[in-house]
Amino acid sequence: MRMSGTDRTVFVVDDDAPALDSLVMLLRSDGLASKGFLSAHDFLAQFDPEARGCVITDLRMPSMDGVELIKALKAASCILPVIVITGHADVSRAVDAMKAGASDFLEKPYESEQILRAVRAALEDYDAAVDADAARNRVLRRIDSLTARERQVLDQIMDGASNKAIAAQLSISPRTVEIYRANVMSKMRADSLSDLIRTTITAGAA
User: Which of 34, 22, 33, 82 has its CA nearest to residue 54?
Assistant: First the structure.
């Protein structure tokens, strides 16, 4: 059965069954939907890329540890924030997890309120990532609406070329460049040149 992405869920991955059950119960007591998994493989086998929320994973697990889980999620273009739970002796490995893309890590033993604060922050991060992803997709759709020539003009603008330089590069008149440039600004819904450049860079299309 695949997990639904309708509601935000906190996915907890820990090979320690009592610790897993305890954390799932804590999250539910705070009104958070949560699901527990005893291994990273179990989680990935049921994971829906459309799922919303965040992930809490223990760092040390057999077969696939927390860092490897984070890398697997990143490889699947997953934007769910990941909180790593680590023992005191694993701080250097926790740093590896942060470098791999973890949003936060907590050392055992942790207070209940500490993990709940981390989860709330992760869910806020998720909402921000969703907004950013939606904004990026809007810009990419606008770029896709450009004609081949308009895209060439946009590429030249992103290279810092003047209208005269663009005209020479594309073997068209400066006046024609102005027309294409106006079309690009309109289709991209950019209010200014800086707005056009910033949104294009943010969308990763530069």
Answer: 82
